[in-house]
Specification:
The complex is a heterodimer of chains A (258) and B (257).
Chain A (H helix, E strand, L loop, with lengths): L6 E5 L4 H12 L3 E6 L2 H13 L4 E5 L5 H15 L4 E4 L15 H29 L2 E6 L2 H4 L6 H21 L4 E8 L5 H13 L1 H9 L9 H12 L10 E4 L10
Parallel strand pairs in A: 1-2, 1-4, 2-3, 4-5, 5-6, 6-7
Chain B lengths: L6 E5 L4 H12 L3 E6 L2 H13 L4 E5 L5 H15 L4 E4 L15 H29 L2 E6 L12 H21 L4 E8 L8 H8 L2 H9 L9 H12 L10 E4 L10
Parallel strand pairs in B: 1-2, 1-4, 2-3, 4-5, 5-6, 6-7
Helix pairs in contact in B: 1-8, 3-4, 4-5
Chain lengths: 258, 257
């Protein structure tokens, strides 16, 4: 087991990528804290982990609220005594529009959850990791944070911000043995995005083909594609990797057919 | 075991990173072909793998010669029936100097092994991978292929070339189910680089400088690189291709100001 005895906090672990990482990490021996706004979804994941013989807790957390994040970290320490891994996975994408069509509300909400939420979780987890002299933090950013994609203004800004934050934290916390890395997933089909892809399948199959075609490997991603990359970065098999942002994207970021 | 029943070719597997990668892959269940110019060290690593109960085959290969690369692919298929993984690890760094001081011989030699060797071995192995519509190729590039490092003219050119080749091969062979990625290590201490680092350890200022280039405050170990290689070639990375992955303690991505 590659995370034996570790304690991992995963935000937004009630569904999608977060859920997949929670299940995989638990199978690899980690106790998992599911920090999730949607408590019921979080409970379902915790139940599944326990049914498989793993260990998990759910804390209802709005990561945009410092007080809630602080409480979640305290509760984690009370329950498990340490924090080895933090995955900033919770994210939203409410507006698929360019800048001039992006409402200020959508902008503020996107930045609050995707970027400020990651910052707040780090702010309260880092002192614990610094005291332990070790830890691994993973930001779940996006290909949209690393490359210009159409109609994603607020989302691109928030995810690009995560990549910058990851590099900055990497150098600041390396002296404490804390590694900070970022994953940039391509288009992944999850319970949440399936609604979007199903709609395209029905109404605009050409656009769906175009999206798939942007990934040289010729398919959309699966949650486990991302979960295994997170496992590698969270585990002791990557002790010399920090400050990295890495595409898990079927080749999206790195190639173009001409 | 994460590479059970797979067949891997590792070039330059007689020492350093290549040896570590070969040993780890064998422990994870892969049959390993050790393509190595130096017969004695190639045979020694084959012996180590077999002593541990693994399967290994040493092949004498000069990666810069197309006949050797072709023979390597043929002999692998003959011995093990298939090729799942190619790790283009063989490399040299004969001249640590800027362009003006770089001799044409050193330039040609560096490019022949580090870049043309990667091309030749990939070209030799690809048809077999295309036939089975699967495969994973991993180039060992370098942090010097991603950012400017002083006094590494020929080496940087060769490794930058590998980084470009990675992306190009990724898009061309994705339709055949073949993934192509590279690792870009920072300073790693191996048997080969030991003397270089030993000399600098005697000078605390020079040593602190090298260490300080890496945010994690240490140089790398072969094991650091081997585990990253294992992840990228395994079935745990099925949707990763075209990636040039720094494995460098933060060398390429961060700077203290």
């Amino acid at each position: 087991m590659r995370l034996h005895g570790k304690v991992s906090i995963i935000t937004g672990a009630g569904s999608g990528l977060g859920k997949e990482m929670a299940l995989l990490f638990a199978r690899e021996g980690s106790s998992v804290v599911i920090a999730e706004l949607q408590e019921e979804a979080g409970r379902n994941v915790a139940r599944q982990i326990k049914e498989e013989g793993g260990e998990a807790l759910v804390f209802k957390t709005d990561i945009t609220q410092a007080s809630e994040v602080e409480k979640m970290v305290e509760e984690t320490l009370k329950a498990y005594g340490r924090i080895d891994v933090l995955i900033n996975n919770a994210g939203i994408n409410p507006s698929r529009t360019p800048v001039h069509e992006t409402s200020e509300e959508a902008w503020d909400a996107t930045l609050a959850v995707n970027l400020k939420g990651a910052y707040l979780c780090c702010k309260y987890v880092l002192p614990v990791m610094m005291k332990q002299n070790g830890g691994s933090i993973i930001h779940i950013s996006s290909i949209v944070g690393a490359m210009g994609c159409s109609d994603r203004a607020a989302y691109a800004a928030s995810k690009g911000g995560m990549i910058g934050l990851g590099r900055s934290m990497a150098v600041d916390y390396a002296p404490y043995g804390i590694r900070v890395n970022t994953l940039n997933p391509g288009f992944v089909e999850t319970e949440l995005t399936r609604i979007y892809f199903d709609k395209l399948r029905e109404q605009d199959p050409q656009k769906l083909d175009r999206i798939i075609g942007h990934h040289p490997l010729g398919r959309l991603g699966k949650p486990e594609d991302v979960a295994y990359a997170a496992l590698f970065l969270a585990s002791d098999e990557s002790p010399w990797i920090t400050g990295l942002d890495m595409g898990v994207d079927g080749g999206f970021l790195h190639c173009k057919r001409i | 075991m994460r590479l059970k029943d797979k067949v891997s070719i590792v070039t330059g597997a007689g020492s350093g990173l290549g040896r570590e990668i070969a040993l780890l892959f064998a422990r994870e269940g892969s049959k390993v072909v050790l393509a190595e110019l130096k017969e004695e060290s190639g045979r020694r690593v084959a012996g180590e793998i077999e002593k541990d109960g693994g399967k290994a085959l040493f092949l004498p290969v000069d990666v810069s010669r197309s006949v050797d690369a072709e023979r390597m692919a043929e002999a692998t298929v003959k011995a093990f029936g298939q090729i799942d993984i190619l790790v283009n690890n063989a490399g040299i760094n004969p001249s640590r100097v800027p362009v003006v001081e770089t001799s044409e011989e050193h330039w040609d030699l560096t490019l022949a092994v580090n870049l043309k060797g990667v091309f030749l071995c990939s070209r030799a192995v690809l048809p077999e991978m295309m036939r089975r519509r699967q495969g994973s190729i991993l180039h060992i590039a370098s942090a010097a292929g991603l950012i400017g490092c002083s006094s590494r003219a020929a080496y940087s050119a060769s490794k930058g070339g590998v980084v470009g080749l990675t992306r190009s091969m990724a898009v061309d062979y994705a339709p055949h189910g073949i993934r192509v990625n590279s690792l870009c290590p920072g300073f790693v201490e191996t048997e080969l680089t030991h003397d270089y680092f030993e000399a600098r350890r005697k000078d605390p200022v020079a040593w602190q400088h090298i260490i300080g280039l890496h945010a994690l405050d240490r140089i790398g170990t072969p094991s650091d690189v081997a585990h990253a290689a294992l992840f990228l070639v395994s079935d745990e990375a099925p949707w990763i291709t075209g990636l040039n992955l720094p494995i460098d303690g933060g060398f390429t991505s961060v700077k203290r100001i």
